[in-house]
Amino acid sequence: MQQADPEQFTFDFRESTAQIVGGTSEDLKIKIGDFAGPLDLLLFLIKQEQANIFDIPIARITEKYLEYIRLMKRLDISVAADFLVMAATLIEIKSKMLLPRDPLAADDEDIEDPRKELVDRLLEYEKFKSAAGMLHERIEIESATFTRGAIESDENNAEIDATVFDILTVFQKIVARHVDEIKMEIEREEISLADMIKTLQRRIAEIGEVSLLEFFEEMHSRRELVTAFIAVLEIVRTEGVKLTQKATFGDILIRKV
Amino acid sequence: MDIEVDQEVAEQVTRTPAELMAVVEALTFVADEPISTKVLAEVLGEDRESIQAAFEEIRNEYDERGSGLQLREIAGGWQIATRTELHEDVRKFLRTRPSAKLSLASLETLAVIAYKQPVTVPEILEIRGVQSASAIKTLLDKRLIVAKGRKEAVGRPMMYGTSKEFLVQFGLKDLSELPSIEDFEDLVS
Q: What is the mean pLDDT of residues B158-187?
């Protein structure tokens, strides 16, 4: 069962995927490819080790898996969190396998293999991996057929419809809009920030204490209001003034220190 | 393509089977996307069975004389396309190269969505063991998948399914044409 034809679930575009190319030096030379995820890497390692998926040599596979992750890190390939989660899972299974069986447990008690959940996930995943291979083949075949290019119709070539009169109508609309634009002249009162600061400074010097609420209420437009607000910030920053507020959400007084 | 049924055209006309085949072939040729028997029946004022028969007859005719064209049933309609075997010459003429392939991650995500639809992102993660956010974005951009509403579960996650474009691009008549996911079990070591 394990010796199933590997061609059946190997895509041709996977040929560039990771494989140990052999070590001339002491270091393993590994060609890095893209693994679709930790389960993909795990399946690859199981196959490479020629292990039985239903009896995974967990210690050996975990070691290979961690070796691969370390290599990825050394090569500065960012290791996705999902790969680390799988590493943790493998280590957990490995430690569970090392624990001696509970001597008090009845002999006939069914003890679940700690690897079972992982095997189930691998088998489920492998089905979809094969399905992905099938989709790949389908789109390859499909991309070898061609349908005819677009035929000109009113829908995709609207200019057929347009006459000189249509153009004139459009032009008239544009002219009309232009006239409207000119009519809309908006007066804008320009009060500069410098003026606003001066006004506020003078007020503070005269009365000694200015209510911000009153000051802001004197403003006529949103623009003035914003300028007034900036003026207050500016004065607080540059001059020796103090802001006091007696109650929460209450009026704020600005006065000389 | 939206075909508006013109009352004038929809009037009952008597055509010989050969005439019907000719007009069905012509309309299939000019249609932008796979054209359904239903639309043709309405436009031509014929019943769907005769249209279906005409399509099958044209397909056989193409096949028998080894035409460079094929008539195929795809995404709930019929389409005229070049024959697969001729792709090299067609590409040479069009000066196109095989289109950009989907990545392994995208294909896997697409496989999960195709077989498990409607399916949520956490469910895809469960099967693939890896985040699929960028693959899902690619598939949405390529219009191969569409959002299919939200699941009535904690967090109301978005559910995804395959689109009509998926059927067209993968040359499928409908989803039932996909081999059953259980068939892949036999391949698993």
A: 88
Listed by number, the residues of chain A in 201-230 with a beta carbon closer than 8 Å to a beta carbon of chain B are: none
CB B31 within 8 A of CB B43: no
- Give domain status of residue A91, yes or no: yes
Strands B69-74 and B77-82, sheet pairing:
antiparallel
pLDDT (tens digit, 9 = 90+) per residue, B35-94? 999 999 999 999 999 999 999 999 999 999 999 999 999 988 999 999 988 988 988 898
pLDDT reading at A11 higher than 50 = no
pLDDT for position A88: 92
Contact B132, B116 (CB under 8 A): no
What integer best gives the mean pLDDT of chain B? 87
State residue B42's pLDDT score. 93
CB contact under 8 A, B1 and A126: no
Closest Cβ–Cβ partner in A132, A139, A145 for B84: A145
Residues A97 and A10 occupy one common structural domain: yes
Query: Considering only alpha carbons, which residue of chain A is nearest residue B103?
Result: A36
Indicate the residue of A80, A127, A142 with minimum beta-carbon distance to B185.
Answer: A127
Whether B173 and B73 have beta carbons less than 8 Å apart is answered as yes
Of B110, B130, B171, nearest to A37 by CB-CB distance is B130
Percent of residues, chain A, with pLDDT higher than 90? 11
ipTM over 0.85: no
- Contact list in A for residue B104 (CB cut-off 8 A) is 11, 13-14, 34, 36, 40, 132
d(CA B176, CA B117): 13
Domains of chain B (ranges; CATH) run: 7-94 (1.10.10.10), 104-187 (1.10.10.10)
- Residue A233: domain span: 193-256
Neighbours of B107 (CB within 10 A): 25
Query: Rounded to a whole number, what is the distance in Å from the CA of A161 to chain B's nearest CA?
Result: 18
Does A15 map to a domain?
yes
A120 touches B: beta carbon within 8 Å: no
